[in-house]
Amino acid sequence: MSVTHITVRGARHHNLKNIDVSIPRNTLTVVTGLSGSGKSSLAFDTIYAEGQRRYVETLSAYARQFLDQMERPDVDAIDGLSPAISIEQKTTSRSPRSTVGTITEIYDYLRLLWASVGRPHCPNCGIEITRQSVEQIVERVLSLDAGERITVMAPIVRGRKGEFREELEALDAQGFRARVDDEIIEIEEGMRLEKRKNHTIEAIVDRIIVKKDADGRPDTRRLEASVQKALQMANGLVLVGIAGQEETLYSSSMACPQCGINVPKLEPRSFSFNSTYGACPECNGLGSIYDFDPAKTITDWSKPLLDGAMGPGSGSAYLLRLIKLFADKNKINLKVPFEDLSESDQKLLLYGPPRAEAAKTGFHGIFPYLRDTMEESKSEAFREYYMQYMSATDCPECKGKRLRPESLAVTVDKRSIADFTSLSLERAREAAQKMRFTGREKLIADRLQREVIERLEFLNAVGLSYLSLNRSAATLSGGEGQRIRLATQIGSRLRGVLYVLDEPSIGLHQRDNMKLIQAMEELRDLGNTVLVVEHDEDTIRKADYVLDLGPGAGKLGGALIAAGSPEDVMAVPESLTGRYISGDVEIQSRETPRPLTGRFITVEGARSHNLQNVTAHFPLGVMTVVTGVSGSGKSTLVNDILYRSLAKELYRSKEEPGLHSAIRGTDELDKVIQIDQSPIGRSPRSNPATYTGVFTAIRDLFAMLPESRERGYKAGRFSFNVQGGRCEVCQGDGQRRIEMNFLPDVYVLCEVCNGRRYNQETLSVKFNGYSIADILDLQIEDALEVLGNIPNVKSKLQTLVDVGLGYIHLGQSATTLSGGEAQRMKLAKELSKRQTGRTLYLLDEPTTGLHFDDVRRLLDVLQRLTDLGNSIIIIEHNLDVIRNADWIVDMGPEGGEGGGRVVAEGTPEQVADVAESHTGQFLKRHYAMRPHSKRGPAPVVPGGIPAKAVETFRRPAKKSTEKDAAPKGKRVKKTGKVG
Predict the structure, then answer these.
(1) Over 90: is that where the pLDDT of 937 sits?
(2) Beta-sheet strands, E only, within 551-644
(3) Domain ranges for the chain
(4) Would you state the pLDDT for residue 834?
(5) pLDDT tens readout for residues 251-303
(6) Which architecture does CATH list for 119-265?
(7) Are strands 662-664 and 972-974 parallel, antiparallel or unpaired?
């Protein structure tokens, strides 16, 4: 009989209260509940962990030692479990070499396609390259020969791993010597190379000095015979070395008839930027180099180069003399402002002339001179001084395309592989579908083309059409990385698998969310069980089965409140989730938006990434929400331009903002604070108590107790980070790690302190019956009761409870907190500070990981922060947050190339009337379903933006110029690179 359910009995992991759960197989099941209610403990730490553990245990002991293994979850039994695959919200890769193309494996198919049917062109003159005869090769060699000895070699092996015993024996039998890894060797009997290393083996075919015949012409007969022999031995390749010159690789199949440039045989590795055979030699395939930045090195573009424009190097008399000589020779006027020089003259001065000319004049360029000076300097302070003028910039050789010129000159359907990967995924799919092949090419390319199209369709289906295949994986958000892995799994067409997903809707606009739900349904329809931890209302409504955990968080959670279809859950009165979905409970809105005061921060001429020279207005003293579909330019506008510009203005930050013309109204602010989802501490020793500062007050409290005074204990005695009061056996960790080789490492409680972190003398000091370890083990809401009489501690703990973090333990390791929890902790810390009313807070999707009820609490905190006179700008997709905004800046209308414009600005109610706005249409639908949630119009204040703001600002911004006048009394920040 087939198993129809995954049955979990007696799950007790973390805060789970010995629950029993039955999940129907081959369904889309959503696990929901308040933050901290035990959702991840059930889905990931129990069900997925057991599935993964069972799989790993089937492997050999040798294989297991190379795998991260999960501990056995605290559960009585799990039956009906399938092989489990986890798709979490972690960054896909931090490597600068990983791209969307490499992690989805689409780039592997593209490399094979370009190597198989690509048309090579000369990287110099651009004509298509054809085969090269022996006579043509000899002619090229003689044109380089200056009467020196010529060495003809056959490259038998090029950069491959292996022992190559047979190849070496064959060369020995034919009487050839060999050059192995650039070293000439005598081949010995039974000789073999190191198996795990890459090797290059070249047979030395001949060494010749070409002499002239009786008629005075070069006698090429021996050279022709040697070249012919080498071509036969090395499958059409011959390597020619001439004394005093670089060795040249010739091919009987690939050579430009005009320039004589040789292109090696096309292989997949020729298009790999992770291989020396394909990577750009200048940047080693990274696409960027850390070099001097013109925008930083030229400190004042309005002045002449030698009269105040140049920063570093301006004190070098030698460099200044070289610049003058070079400028005189090339007729470059050094008396005009640097910005008035032509772009070609600017580049000549900064980057230098071609090598041949530089060798004659001695001037290699300002940047090469500065690089050499920096490398030769032994002073660390001098190096640090120069580094502040440097930035990561596109490689000047490959222009950021990562590959060698020969590889970039190969085309399929008139596009290089770099051109194809730079397209948005939507346009890449269209381009792949339009490729046409005939005859032999069709036989080779047909399947490769089909694989590329299918994978691109899956990526577009999960709302990633705005990304490109060359997008660095390190720049992807957690949600984008998760959806890429989801698309990859759909493409793998596996069946009978349990997929466990962690909030895949993060970072998605409501429009894109429907595509995501369809993708998960497709995964289910293949015959898989899809288990999703999710708070999104649309996903819950579309689920086949819902598990609602609660009723609260932390120790108040861990129970199964409701299970069944979405309708079944809505019928359970104890289910908070069900009540929110059914509409019985709602997040209340203010009666009207806050009035605008007439004070604004205005970004003008924003044109970084896909922004199309837009102007956006952010009113101060209110809560503004920036909306738009994924990839529409929200993060670029707020984080890359607005935040970095303000940080540079207020704090002298070194981070360069994105391209824009001006920021107006900065004199209205004295602080800008970005509250993101990065961890509050990288160390496991960092915790909520240390981060919020209450641990200092708690340690001071314990040091003031009579028992501590008698013993002479100071506050440092109660820290687990320093010697004195901590347990020295575990050094204050409370546990010890035991390495188990092919089994997972085991963490055991320290046998001396039993996980308490402190020694017995320290633990004997107690406040109201609690030792310092007891205090750290309390949940924040319990600690508030115990420490409620200490004003400084009480206010900070109360704020943590207000933002919905009361279930977290005071001493809980910061590394165990989710991104949403870390963000709310930062928010609570800011809320507990003294307010100036001139602070701008920037938040990026603060509702990540939050239940409807947690969103309600978060909104209460944000409203409090705004009521204190502060300004808040939030990037958000959550409709409850959007409809509670005082002002909306809606980006779009689409993502990627189709976005980058301000579609609408105004109150939520005004934006709902804009037909071009996707956000507006979802707001309109919401107001139609729940008309009572629609607020009244905002009071109009003199100087504020009028009510018809939507009509005024929803059109594309006009082109901004540097001559735009600043409003009287307003400070203007202007940036941008000339040229």
Answers:
(1) no
(2) 559-564, 600-606, 614-619, 623-627
(3) 5-91+477-582, 119-265, 288-393, 600-679+827-974, 688-816
(4) 76
(5) 887 777 567 677 888 899 999 999 999 999 989 999 988 888 888 889 888 89
(6) 2-Layer Sandwich (3.30)
(7) antiparallel
